Amino acid sequence: MTTGEYNKCVELYADGIFRFVLKNLTHREDAEDVVQQTFEKMWLKKDVVGFDKSKAYLFSIAHNTMIDLIRKRKFVQAYEQIPAHGQEEHARSMEARDLIDQGFEALSPVQRSLILMRDYEGYNYEEMAEMTELTLSQVKVYLFRARKKLQTAITCLDKLI
Amino acid sequence: MNINISNYEIFALDYIEGSLESEEMIAMQTFLNQHPNIARELESLREMVILKPDKSISFKGKTALLKDETPKIIWLNQNIASKIGYAAAISVLLISVYTLGYWTAKKETAIGHLPIRQTETINQEKVNDDDSLVAVEDRDKSSIRSVIQSGNAKKANTISSKKYRATHELALVATRDDKDNVVATFPETKIIQDVASELSERQKSEKLLVPLPSRAIRLIPIERNFSDNNSLPIALAQDTKRISRFELDKVKQYLAKLPFEDLTVAHFIPSYFLDNQKGKNIF
């Protein structure tokens, strides 16, 4: 990968990776650190990583860096309220969004990563297995359980409200 | 194909998404018929929540991640690299000279006011191009000698009686004489080093050494006397004949970069000065 291609990766993928990490960590500064480390790691490997594989490579590094961070710090979620966007949304939508956020937070870090890889970036199961270094069966099972948990959490929270 | 309670989760999502193979689909339906609770659970997931990224969130630190795409200049030639280092050293030393010049100017003793009185002519008969020697004049009160004498008279005599073989490396010495004038000259490096070794630490700090572009001036044997107290401290021998235009231009170019505004070629090339003294104003 050339320096130009690396810079193109920054332009193309930095936002997506940031959203992916931020959604998972819910802590802006930590998310920024992870993105920075992710690109630094890729820069060091730019001679062996092709531009065509760069996106998957970046998400893989971001995922692993994030998991390491969570394990290392035994991440206590100091939930930093992500600024509300789309203020024109009516109250009902905001409530639904909050429910989803809370249900999502109840998932394990790996489950959150899988959900985001699938929903945010549209990766297929094989690609996700490669990026997370899990088996294909593991990915499918973890993701299924994550979906189920998310659905259950939302239903339960909805009933409570 | 056997789908049971232990492995159905592997096929669950593909079932919901409708991407099971026909054989797998049959096995899955068979399993779900046996487990209606799981069948209802999977049905409820057909309307599962799909998260959407908030596109308004962006990473602010992109600029810091970008790398410079300007092609790098790689010095393949070690000589070139050493010249760059040499140029850097000159720059540092020139700044030092400038600082000294500024300090002197504040004392209203500009270098341009230094009289240059040559009481003896160059003994051209003794010139031998193959024996490039520069003599340090040990008589009178030359500036460097004055500095030395103020610290150690005996050593001054010892030093000034020496003769040194010139090398290709020239240097500008800027120092102060006993009247606090800045005095600059181009003695041969070895001389400077030897003189410097004899100076006290305090005096060393007042002495600056600036390397010249190599071979800007050719050194030849010469002895010069300065009877005047304010004369230049050390005379640099110059070609007994005319300095070439090329060489002169090089010297002028170099002098123009020095911080001493009134410093002229004549300060450093006595023969050129003498040749042009006869009714000619060369500066």
How is this structure best summarized?
The complex is a heterodimer of chains A (161) and B (283). Chain A is mainly α.
Folded structure, characterized:
The complex is a heterodimer of chains A (161) and B (283). Chain A has 161 residues and is mainly α. Chain A has seven helices and no strands. In chain A, helix 3 runs antiparallel to helix 5 (109-119) and helix 3 crosses helix 6. Chain A is globular. The N and C termini of chain A lie far apart (52 Å). The model of chain A is unreliable at 77-92 (pLDDT under 50). Chain B has a three-stranded antiparallel sheet, sandwiched between helices. Chain B has a two-stranded antiparallel ribbon with strand order 1-2. Chain B has helices spanning 8-17, 22-34, 36-44, 62-65, 78-106, 143-151, 153-160, 189-198, 201-204, 245-257, 270-277, and strands at 133-135, 163-165, 171-176, 182-185, 208-211. In chain B, helix 1 packs across helix 2 (22-34) and helix 6 (143-151) packs antiparallel against helix 7 (153-160). Helices cover 41% and strands 7% of the residues of chain B. In chain B, a hairpin with a 5-residue loop joins strand 3 and strand 4. With 283 residues, chain B is mainly alpha-helical. Classes of the chains: A mainly alpha (161), B mainly alpha (283).
As for the number of domains of chain B, it is 2
Tell me about the biggest sheet of chain B? 3 strands, antiparallel
Number of strands of chain A: 0
* Backbone CA Rg of chain A: 17 Å
Q: What characterizes the major β-sheet of chain A?
A: none
> How much of the sequence of chain B is in beta strands?
5-15%
What's the mean pLDDT score of chain B? 52
The shape of chain B is rod-shaped
Tally of DSSP β-strands of chain B:
5
Name the assembly state: heterodimer
Beta-sheet strand percentage of chain A? under 5%
CATH architecture verdict of the largest domain in chain A = Orthogonal Bundle
* Element string of chain B (H = helix, E = strand): HHHHHEHHEEEHHEHH
What is the alpha-carbon Rg of chain B in Å? 41 Å
How far the N terminus sits from the C terminus of chain A, by CA atoms, comes to 52 Å
Broad structural category of chain A: mainly alpha
Total DSSP helices of chain B: 11
Number of helices of chain A: 7
